[in-house]
Specification:
The complex is a heterodimer.
Chain A (H helix, E strand, L loop, with lengths): L2 H33 L3 H11 L3 H18 L1 H10 L1 H20 L6 H31 L19 H25 L2 H32 L1 H6 L5 H18 L3 H23 L2 E3 L9 E2 L7 H28 L13
Antiparallel strand pairs in A: 1-2
Helix pairs in contact in A: 1-2, 1-3, 1-6, 1-7, 1-11, 1-12, 3-4, 5-6, 6-7, 7-8, 7-11, 8-10, 10-11
Chain B lengths: L1 H40 L2 H35 L1 H35 L6 H30 L4 E4 L2 E4 L2 H5 L2 H31 L5 H36 L1 H7 L11 E8 L4 E8 L2 H7 L9 H12 L8 H30 L7 H10 L1 H16 L4 E3 L3 E2 H4 L6 H39 L1
Helix pairs in contact in B: 1-2, 1-4, 1-6, 1-13, 1-15, 2-3, 2-7, 2-15, 3-4, 4-6, 6-7, 6-12, 6-13, 7-8, 7-11, 11-13
Classes of the chains: A mainly alpha, B mainly alpha.
Amino acid sequence: MDLNTLWFILIAVLFVGFFILEGFDYGVGILLPFLGKTDDERRMLVNTIGPFWDANEVWLVTAGGAMFAAFPEWYATMFSGFYLALLLMLLALILRGVAFEFRSKDSHPRWRRFWDGAICLGSALPALLWGVAMGNLILGLPIDPAMNYVGTFFSLLRPYALLYGVTSFLGFTLLGALFLCLRTTGDLAERAHLAAERLWMPTVVIVSLVVGFGYFVTGMFARLGVNPGVVPISAGAALLATGWFLRRRFHGWAFAMLSLTVAFTLLTLFIGLYPRVMVSSLNEAWSLTIYNASSSPYTLRVMTIVTLTLLPFVLAYQAWSYWVFRKRIGAGSHLEY
Amino acid sequence: MELTLARMQFAATTVYHFFFVPLTLGLSILVALMETLYVRTGDQTYKRMTVFWGKLFVINFAMGVVTGLVQEFQFGMNWSEYSRFVGDVFGAPLAIEALSAFFLESTFLGIWIFGWDRLSKGMHAAAIWLVAIAANLSALWILIANSFMQEPVGFTLNHGRAEMVDFGALVTNPHIFVQFPHVLTGGMATAAFFVLGISSYHLLRKPPDAPVFLRSFRMAAVCGMIASVLVILVGHSQGQHMVLTQPMKMAAAEALWESQDPASFSLITIGNEPERRDVFAIRLPRLLSVLAYNQLTGEVKGIKNLQAEYEVTFGPGNYVPPVAISYWTFRFMVGAGFLMLLLAGISLAYVLRERLEPAPPFLRLLPLAMALPYVANSSGWLFTEMARQPWIVFGLMRTAEGVSPTVTAGMLWISLTTLTLLYAALMGADVYLLAKFARAGTADAAAA
């Protein structure tokens, strides 16, 4: 395997990490006003992700940095091409980030309502936009021979791409609900379970739609063929297993299965792209690939050594932080946020 | 038009981001010291200090995190041609910063904030030390990236772009050895003045928790004095390095139109920038040579001479940065720095003579002095970036060549307006909360 492929895989891994970790905390944010009836309950909900959300977001920052280092052309084309969409996402993430920190530091009801709204909206928008972005990557984009995106903001809002947006929105919300089943007690946990049960079926339906339409509107699904292979089938199986475990209230298993669904789904999409990273809809030859968009072999070698050295430590201490805060949050828990 | 807007946006978002960064760099170390003293002595006053300053640290930190998101993405968004040209070199330190520092910082800050009753005292103190180390490590990596823009090393031009050939040279860029210590000590000075200002506010009111603020004041006076001396000394060597590697930047800082030997230092210059001449100037003879070379003679090159030199090297074009902006931002930075040295010196004198109480006028002055490091930090960055113009990477790429070709003026207006409005509103909320918790003292900090 060459380093270009290794880096394509590493960036896929970073996005998988980001989609799962930040996925459930987007979900918690989206559910905040619906599950938390009282201010105390909303505080508890925010505190379930309190110690984690910032480190989860670093997965996104790292994925962005890794794209810049390993595939600078990809970084440049995608981020300048998705300019307004990315701006919208950044505005949402900025508001959401400070909202966690600020909401409970003043007791005025209007202050808290405002920041709760910011958490909800600031989680909902990125959850939606990431799906739309993935959908557009799958559909291909108007990219000229100089690797510049020549479409507009509105040409990103294609129906099939929006369908991806709804999928990621529902998927992340479901993941958030399952996370809350594991991290709360009593009434809150019960409400989270109900929310998860209600969200599962629509998620299955929308994923079926994405797959079904996918065979008609994208080249990628046609390439997969009738027997798509182990990865996409595992994604589907894991999603069905999520529902099975959820019914039986095995929340840990359900959460694990949905995380696997997210991972396998993303891997399916990345495999579908490979070896391209951005497909040009104007001319296949103008697509960005892991070869024409990449850094030099020397830089890839340096980055490989650094990343493979550091990543195990990151995984270890992040896992440890989840172990430290494994206790559920309920009435009487000490709330920091 | 697009270029101007993109530059305005980069300046606005970056200066804003750097309101929060230096305090994070310095205050993380001070809070870690306070908690270490608590763990070693068991003294509750140190614990109250840790909790009180820790709360202010966390509010400030959140703003640094979210404004940092924009930093990570805007090279690609607004400077795509720049990203394509330097990505092979410049992307690596950014990615390594996230991997080696941001993960560590965010994970252990989460552990520190939420872990008071879940970790042993020693482990808890270790967590804030990791935050402090990671914060300052992230500064090192981003400055390695910036140093490449100031003084490109370890690369070769290949396939129409800069490609890394020597990672070791990139991270040991001579520029980083003067820039990183300057930012590090600047961060410590920022934190020291933050603590001095808020402690003075409380000491004036003689509250029941006065011991907390007396001790904070002492610690900050010592750290502030050390940092103020070092930031000036390091700044001095940075200036000397600048004379050698970016002489145009020094010439602009001094409004020095013609080369001089021995060179004079400008005390005040009112210049005519288009005609490149003085309207009115008071210059101190020989002082610039002394600053540049530590000796009474030595040529410092002037703007006109350098312009002629660069035309020969790089071809026709304007190689003169905005002189008035360079001149004044440099003076604001240096002026604020020396005022800080003076105030830190007086604070330390009070501490050493153990008579803090009888100086209410001075205590009233220090809360105002909290603004000084912010003036110095912001004008310092504006200076070093503006006075590098027209280059985005010195000698390699012009700023005008780096901008995204597909991002229109309309899109830029939208982003510049929304970001500015959001940032302004958040500044209001941030200052409100900081002031609220700073005023509350430690009674509230212990309870919350």
